[in-house]
Amino acid sequence: MKGVVFTGLLEMVEKRFGYVVANNIIIKSNLPSEGIYTSVGTYDYKEMQSLVKQLSDETGISGNDLLEAFGTYYFDTLASKAVGFFSVSDGLFVFLSKVESYIHPEVLKLYPDAQLPTFIIEEYSDKRVQLLYQSRRRMEYFAFGLIKGAIRYFGEAAEVRMQIKESGDTLFIISKQ
Amino acid sequence: MDLKQQIQALEQILERERKARLASEQLIEEKASELYSIHKEVIQLNTKLEQLVAERTEDLTIKNEGLQVATNRLALLIQNLQFAVLLEDEHRKIVMVNQRFCDLFMIPVEPEKLIGADCAKAAEETKELFLDSDTFIDKVDRLLEDRQPFLNEELKLKNGKVILRDFIPIWSQGKYQGHLWIYNDVTEKRIAELKLTEQRQFYENILNRIPADIAVFSNQHRYLFVNPLGIKDDALREWIIGKTDEDYCRLRGRDLGLAKERSLVFQEVMKEKKQLEWEERIVSRDGEVGYYLRKFFPVLDAKGEVELLIGYGINITERKKWEQEVERSEKRYRDLFDYSQALICTHDLDGVFINVNPAISEVMGYAPNEMIGRKIDEFIPYDEKGLFKTQYLDVINEKGKAEGVFRVLSKEGKKLYLLFKNYKMEEYGSDPYIIGFSQDISEMIAAEKELRIAKKITEESAKAKEVFLANMSHEIRTPMNGVMGIAGLLGKTSLDEEQRNYLRLIQESANNLLVIINDVLDLEKIIMGKLQLENLAFSLPERIEMCVQSFTYKAEEKGLTLLYKNFCKDEFAVIGDPYRINQVMNNLINNAIKFTDKGSVLIETRLKERHESKVFIEFIVNDTGVGIPENKQKEIFEPFVQASSSVSRLHGGTGLGLSICKDLIHMMGGELLVDSLEGKGSTFHFVLPFEISSMIPNTQKIPDHMDYTSLGHRKILVAEDVELNQFLAKHILESWGFEVVLANNGLEALEKVKAEDFDLILMDIQMPEMDGIAATEAIRKLEDVKKASLPIVALTANVLKGDSDKYLRAGMNDYLAKPFDESKLFVVISKNLQGAGSDIHSANQTTQKISNMETIQKLYDLAMVETISGGDQAFVKKMVQLFIDTIPQTMRDMEKAAADQQWEATGKLAHKMKSTIDSMGIVSLKAEIRALEANGKASESIDQIPVQVQHINEVLAKCIEQIKKDFGL
């Protein structure tokens, strides 16, 4: 997992819970990287799981909720970094459809070692988009948060529901009123 | 959280950030060294590339010099091309363009200055020039994308120009180099083509739509053109060009004869250089025959030689069919005309024969050419010619048809009667004419004449018989009246037993004679159909009872039991003729007693059926007499037949009785039947229907002993010419205590009535000077109301004509048939003395009505014509019309002949008129016309002739008026 995600998480933790909490969860997680993250580096995704678990213990908020909140927070960071890949004028649905087809391939050009989930478009209409999320790392709540962040970012009246399937894949249903 | 902890956390964070920076710096250094090595590689590659370019440039420069020359030439060529040309490179930059292109697209720049210009947006900029802008853009895009040559694409500009565009992509060694656009302005060519096409279509349309086969042939008789009507199949039509008719026939498996025939005509046209026309008969594959009218027109060249040949053909099958149909129907009519038994002719409006059929010719005895062209009135008898125009020609001209009878003369001079019905025919395009149909009715007319004569004879003999019978009746009754009356008076005197017996025999014989006379008269009346039944209300059982009672004495004399049983329990009166029932029952009972020596005679009446207003009564007369043999049972009802010839010897009688009974019963709606066993007896029975009367009849029973003095003193006038009868009446009446005044005839009676007052008149009908009827009428017209209303009772021996109506209509109150007996006379006198006043008024009215009727009496009577017509009213009308049409001329002729003192001619005209007067039933002229005929013929009483003629003509004129009025003519 790219370091930029870790730095993003820690930035959020510091903002929301204070640098002590941020420090604590790093210490308690006993991470192989010892919590030394550079945005362009690459780290084991399990460190993320450890950090979130520790944060959950520390704050009493469930890990999933934390991941979702992080996703929502993190989308703006991603957007500011991904200038050129998409713009607000695209609109939410166009953006969602571009994730798998355009943004991810471009990301891979910059970071050939990046490990990215797949977002398959199951349905696409003016009113509704269904995205099937597939990832070994099971970061569906993070993805859930990211989609919510995207809705906020594009400023559109839409809502997202998630269905976790038996296969472990997750279906996101984004619909406009 | 304590400070120490916080500081520790911050130190830890700081340590991590430092390490992260170091890690980043290391990453950057790695990337920088990577960049450096890439840069060195790029420089090396660039050097190598420059070297290659330099080598290449040198190479190109050398080639370019030669190329420049070629390019210049090419440019020059392109500039001068008749097409607009645009060459673009692979980036759509203009490589070359010519002036024509600029002109075509109205670009106000020299072509040289366009080189290098970008064409990417050219299509978008010029699209407005094109008729279909969007398609234009799409098409250009597709061409550029496909990079395939696309030639002769037609583009239409909004300004009306039509352009053909070629797109030619340019490839060199598998590499796309650009493309060439070539535009060819074909507007004018298109316009010219269009005009040419329109013109061709115009002519083709004409040729295709002409309802005729049209073909153009070379002078070798090969097809150059044929229109679709000539050959419908498109492929075949194309195929035939350059071929001959023979080729066509072979292809279609047709008979070559057709082609040969055409070929002959073709050769003829080639030779004569004139058009030829002929008819062709073509049998199609399914056997239908078609007819064509064909023409060949030669088209000559400048030298006068045949260059082309135009063939023209129209289908005349329909016309041909019509022609054949017309021919057939003409033949049919011709046959009808020739072989018809009806006389058919046509003539013009002046009456000149146009045509006559063989039937006319045969009847008239003239050959057709002896009649055609001559006027019809040449064949009409001289004295009827005048009527031909007014009565026929003018009528048919005005009304369009006429019918009637022509009298014409045959060649032999025989007069023929033709019953005709002629019509005026008006057809467009030809003069109107008249077609006549007639029938020779001469024989019919002759037969009618014979019939008329025969009828007259029959009628006259019938009349003679009637008169004879009436006279006989009168002549016998009058003395009988005397015999019976005197016998009655004799019976009032004191006589011894023997004398009384003689008197009884006299009376019986007289009665028998009367029965015989009555039977003969009745039978005659029945045969003549002159018997009329009364319709009176009466009580049937009472009537039968009376009848039976009158035979009591006779039955007792023979020791027979005579019994009447009435099984009609219901009380009702019936309507019928009591006298005739009495007559029938009298006859049957009389026979029964006559033919029975011992035993009984039983009379029964039974109710068979009863309906609301109708009853059926059965009458039975049964005896135990000699009976009738079975083989005679039918015959006994025939007149003049008796069961055996011995019967008449033993029992007397005329043999008319049963026959009359049978007829009377039949007239009353029943049938007389007989059941009989020889030696055992007979039963005669019949059933009669009667209406039930709502009124109870006033039965007039003649009392057994009448009190002849009950009427007191009365003054009676007896008008009677026979002395014996005067004596008889006077004696009877005076014995009742009446005063009697006698008159010898009607005139005397009238004078007596005027002079004296009477209570009643007994008036004989047949009297000299003035008969009873005239006298009665005169009395009824008297001013003295009392005298005019005197009760008058007719006494008549004229039983034959004696229907009571006649006397009652004359104003009489009642009548009594002669011979009468005292009791009947008393009843009728007493009835009329009592009720005279009330009846007289109505009688007077009836008289008035009758005299009015007589003043408007018809002068003619069509009974004979109607009889001859057998009910055909049209015939009657025709005869009447003929009378009206012909008689005025005869009248004029007769008047003229009389004025010219041509007595014989007048007599002949009277003879001619005689039969007409007879047949029209103008009775009043019957004698006069005969007198005139006789006078004329013998030239006698010549001073009477003009008077007779005038009178006859006056009556005839009136008669014509009446007929016209009655028939609405």
Task: Offer a quick outline of the entry.
Chain A has 177 residues and is of the alpha+beta class.
Q: What does this 3D model show about the protein?
A:
The complex is a heterodimer of chains A (177) and B (969). Chain A is 53% helix and 16% strand. Chain A has 177 residues and is of the alpha+beta class. Chain A has a 4-stranded antiparallel sheet with strand order 1-2-4-3, with helices on one face. In chain A, helix 1 packs across helix 2, helix 1 packs across helix 4 (63-81) and helix 2 packs across helix 3 (45-59). The longest helix of chain A has 19 residues, at 63-81. Chain B is an alpha+beta fold and 969 residues long. Chain B has 6 domains: 81-191, PAS domain (Beta-Lactamase); 210-317, PAS domain (Beta-Lactamase); 340-440, Beta-Lactamase; 540-693, 2-Layer Sandwich (Heat Shock Protein 90), CATH 3.30.565; 715-855, Response regulator (Rossmann fold), CATH 3.40.50; 863-967, Four Helix Bundle (Hemerythrin (Met), subunit A) (Up-down Bundle), CATH 1.20.120. Chain B is built from 30 helices and 27 strands. In chain B, the strands form 5 sheets. In chain B, strands 16, 17, 18, 19, 20, 21 and 22 form a 7-stranded mixed sheet that branches. A 5-stranded antiparallel sheet of chain B has the order 2-1-5-4-3, with helices on both faces. In chain B, strands 7-6-10-9-8 form a 5-stranded antiparallel sheet, with helices on both faces. In chain B, strand 21 (673-677) and strand 22 (681-693) form a beta hairpin. Classes of the chains: A alpha+beta (177), B alpha+beta (969). Chains A and B meet through helix 2 of A and helix 1 of B.
